[in-house]
Amino acid sequence: MGRPIIAIDEDRFELDDSGAIPELKRHIEAALLAGGGFVDFASAGGRPVAALITPGTRVVITTTVEAEPVDPDEVELPFGIHLLEDL
Questions:
Q1: How many CA atoms lie within 13 A of 12 on its CB side?
Q2: If DSSP states are collapsed to H, E and C, what string results for the chain?
Q3: What is the pLDDT of residues 58-68, one digit of tens each?
């Protein structure tokens, strides 16, 4: 499972708990309906964040995707590409 991320305009915050996202969405929507307001939340590691949400604020909530480990012996390299250990 990946880590939840909230991007607010140009800033990106990783969150520790994906369970906090529904409540965070409600707070963001309430701030928008009120014409703007601060939304407080904790980013990864417990760092407090107070974000001013206005009708012009762009908010994106997503989750990182953890890549599955790749066995280097099973990777097919394009023609003409060689690993140093193969030379």
A1: 6
A2: CCCEEEEECCEEEECCCHHHHHHHHHHHHHHHHCCCEEEEEECHHHCEEEEEECCCCCEEEEECCCCCCCCHHHCCCCCCCCCHHHC
A3: 999 998 877 66
